[in-house]
Amino acid sequence: MAAGERKNVISDLPEDVWLLRPCELYLEEFSDCASAKGRFHQYYTVGSSADCERWQQDYKNCLKFRNTGDTEAAEAIIANEKERRAARLKGARENNVWDYRQGPPPEWKADLSKWTNERQESVLAKAQEQKERTGTISAQEDGSRCVIS
User: Fold this and answer.
1) Distance (Å, whole) CA 70 – CA 120
2) How far apart are CA 131 and CA 79, in angstroms?
3) What are the annotated GO cellular component locations (predicted)?
4) Which residue from 11, 41, 46, 67 has the least number of CB within 10 angstroms?
């Protein structure tokens, strides 16, 4: 294979390739993390500065994957994304305020007849029905119309 030729095809991509973000977002996250404003925010909210090296490494790996199709670089990014996702969801999973449902609520398949009847009685529904029958909408009883031109 030539030096610049991509060596991978779609079937060779990792299963969780959908977790990858555009490369520019990794650079933006790194820039935000390393900026003076970002450092101040980190110090204010956490009490220490965060390590921004992972964002920079993800950006480099993303460019490597984009330019050469290197699946190892993509897998490294995916591993970091899974760690970030697990850390983000950790608080929700460990919280005892909410009870997670095991299935849909009992009224999930409730009868919609009342809603359907109200909808069919509306002016818009009648106009749509007339349009479907005749192909045009006739003037209303009072003859007024709102036209935006």
Assistant:
1) 57
2) 55
3) synaptic cleft
4) 11
**What are 14's two structure tokens?**
């990792």
131 Cβ neighbours under 8 A, 6+ residues apart: 137
C-beta of residue 26 within 8 angstroms of C-beta of residue 62: yes
- Give me 138's structure tokens: 């006739």
Here the tokens at position 2 are 């030539």
Residues 6+ apart with CB under 8 A from 127: 137
CA 76 to chain CA centroid, Å, is 21
Q: What is the pTM of this model?
A: 0.61
Please give the structure tokens belonging to residue 120. 């069919």
